[in-house]
Amino acid sequence: GAQDSCAHQCGELLGTCSCQVTCQSLGICCPDYKEFCLQISPYSGSLMGGKDFLIENTALNASSVLTCRFKHKIKTSGYVAKDGKAHCISPLLYETGFIPFEVSTDDGLTFPYSGTWLSVHHSKVSDGEKCTLVNETKWQYYGTPNTGGNLTLTWTHQALAATHINIEVWGYQETGDSYSENWVAEWKYLYTLAREIPNTGKFSFIPVPAKGSYSTWDFGILRISPSSYSDGQSNIPSVWSSEHALAWHLGKDFRNDPKAWATAKCIEWDRKEEKLPNFMEEIIDCPCTLAQARADTGRFHTDYGCDIEKGSVCTYHPGAVHCVRAIQASPQYAAGQQCCYDSTGTQILTHDSTGGSTPDRGHDWGSPPFMKPPRIPGFSHWLYDVISFYYCCLWSDNCHFYMKKRPSSDCRTYRPPRAASAFGDPHFLTFDGLNFTFKGQGEYTLVESDLTSLRVQGRTQQVHFPNGTGAQVTGLSAVAMQENNSDVIEVRYSEDFNLEVLLNQKVVNFSEQSWMDLKGLFLHSTADQNITVMFSSGSGVEIRGSGGFLTLTVLLPEKFMNHTQGLFGVMNGNTEDEYTFKNKTTMSVHASPQQLFEFGANWAVENGTSLFTYDTEFLLNNFFYGEKHNASFLPVFFPYEDPADPLVKEVVSLCDSDPFCRFDALTTRSLQVGRSTRLSHQNHKLLVENLEPVISCGWLDHPTNGTKNGTNYLLGSTISFICNQGYELTGSKERICQVTGAWSGDTPSCVP
Question: What is the pLDDT of residues 299-343, one digit of tens each?
Fold first, then answer.
């Protein structure tokens, strides 16, 4: 019979063959799979668009008229180069994440070719892709006292295939009524700064105030594009600058008296804020300590503007050593939280110091479904929280206005998440702190929750160690997860022991981007392959490879209490019911390893609910068609410690009193495995320690006509009060934060 074709069918399983991404490793692709299902390079670029990408696997004839169409509606022009390779230009988008695109070779009649483009937050794009505002501060302070002279712009001239280029100024605005359906975001071409200049990679000029109404645009960006295109033409090859405060082009009124101009703008912003809803009520409270903030990886992520691992360069937060941002935007207003900490690990509040953290009306990363204010990645945030900081704090001395509208949150209502881990020859540490070893071979439910349909599944496989016997050693080899109808993420060891991450069955490549905004989750990979999945519920999953096994940690916020089941137990603060079966019966916590083996087997995944990708013959035969729990595999329950065995002595000195380390080193006959098990175990203990709840009594003010001593508001802290000369103190001279979360004593006041 005739073979099916992948034209218009990428991602589908057809009658005679497959157009799904797994078809290649299974050898069942339709013959024209590679022609129609596109691989591209580069695979990502700024949401501002204008980036040229190559379509790697399709040879088209040079006379084809190429049209590229993103999201079924945004068209950009493509072209076929002299070498017969096809190219597309990425479009300006108001969202981040994977964007489907299609290609037409018949001038837009049909679009049989398809692929995906990764749209990235503008400040997450590598510096080389942007043009550089040399001494950016000078651009953004131009016209203020002691800032003038030449401005210089540089760029990689090879990025544009043109001998002459234009440099344009674009402005960003959001029009319509705040938080209503007609609120709209727009990047708008304003004017051309320089025309038909040689594409040398450098341009210097003395800025003059922009003409007419253009000088009222104070937030924008520069675009460099070939002179052959018309002014402001959309979606053409371009190199954009970073977005910035346009001080350098502001009008005469700004240049004559920047302070007065900025003060008026600051007061106007303050009045506008008065009329907007209070987003502070719905953002998550900050973690109480730096240790909590760095451990709660499902809900908080490093703020790159103040990072302890990059030397704590905290320009906007003097006195801070580290800040974090809440990963998820708040539900209704899409607002963001920021939390900063000093060298003692204590939170810094704006009430006490200008270095304090300031929450954001617009979350810096934007938030799904993007497209409309206040959810535009980066730019909504600039408009409400950054340009206003220039008005009030940087271009004038009115920072008190800003801090009053953006006060730090303390940590009184913060509740740390709970952690469960699995590692080694699999050892399980449950949310409630019970630990056990389950050496089944198969695919099992580690945790599932009826609260958000969260499911985390683990696969264990027999592992053979080069120098060990290791006949009956199993370990985690793959973990797959999903929440509600989010994307499905799987992390696994490939057959050559490389860590692979799959997104909806397709291997993800982190070579260009280490952070991805996906459906219902964010995905992050560190340089040393630590994978973090952050679901929209605030639950987090961390996975890393260690010595042939995966190490897994799941973090669940308090709202999951009484809403979990699986191998990680019932999270409710009580260990007695940890061993709960699918049918809700429980087994004693003193069960034997053999009984535990039955408990584990009960949580085997069923085919219909498996989240794993079966893209090799081996996986199909062993896990898809075979049993989900291999009942014929009988593990070693107790490794034998032979006093005459030379390994035992080494194991004792390596492992000390760590039972998991001893178990794994003896069953695998490998000290290396023991060492990585010990490390995973220590990491888990440290994490649990860092996530201990901390009591906070909340911020205390100083009395009018007096001062206070102390800025730590956690359990056991003392704040003392002194009155100014000529006043005496009534009420408590010092107050202590008590176990109840209340301050001792009474509010002091200073009376003449």
Answer: 999 998 899 998 888 888 999 999 999 999 999 999 999 999 999
3-state secondary structure of 650: helix
Residues 6+ apart with CB under 8 A from 342: 319, 320, 321, 348, 355
Contact (Cβ atoms closer than 8 angstroms) between residue 501 and residue 490: yes
Name the strands in the sheet holding 40-41, side by side, starting at the edge strand that comes first in the sequence: 40-41, 52-59, 85-89, 74-80, 67-70, 97-104, 113-120, 44-46
How many CB atoms within 10 Å of residue 14?
Answer: 16
For 736-750, what is the mean pLDDT?
A: 95
- Concatenated DSSP letters for 474-500? EEEEEEEEE-TTPPPEEEEE-TTS-EE
Whether cis (ω within 30° of 0) applies to the bond prior to 643 is no
Burial of 141 (C-beta count, 10 Å sphere; 0-12/13-18/19+):
buried
Cα–Cα distance, 735 to 61 (Å, whole number): 80
Helix, strand, coil % over all residues of the chain, rounded to 5: 20, 30, 50
The closest of 76, 80, 41 to 238, measured between CA atoms, is 76
Query: Cα separation of 593 and 300, whole Å?
Result: 38
The domains of the chain, with CATH numbers, are 38-120 (2.60.40.10), 130-256 (no CATH), 261-358+377-405 (no CATH), 418-614 (no CATH), 706-751 (2.10.70.10)
Triad 700, 702, 704: Cα angle to 5°: 135
Looking at residue 44, the DSSP 8-state letter turns out to be E
The phi, psi pair for 600, rounded to 5°, reads: -60, -45
Query: CA torsion, points 706, 711, 714, 717, in degrees to nearest 10?
Result: -60
Q: pLDDT tens digits for 390-427?
A: 999 999 999 999 999 999 999 999 999 999 999 988 89
Helix, strand, or coil (residue 572) = coil
Kindly report the pTM of this predicted structure: 0.93
Q: Is 346 left (phi over 0), alpha (psi -120 to 50) or beta?
A: beta
- Residue 213: pLDDT above 70? yes
- Dist. CA 327–CA 335, nearest whole Å: 11
pLDDT (average), residues 740-748: 95
Helix (H, G, I), strand (E, B) or coil at 312: coil
Whether 617 shows a pLDDT value over 80: the answer reads yes
Strand order in the sheet with 338-341: 300-302, 322-326, 338-341
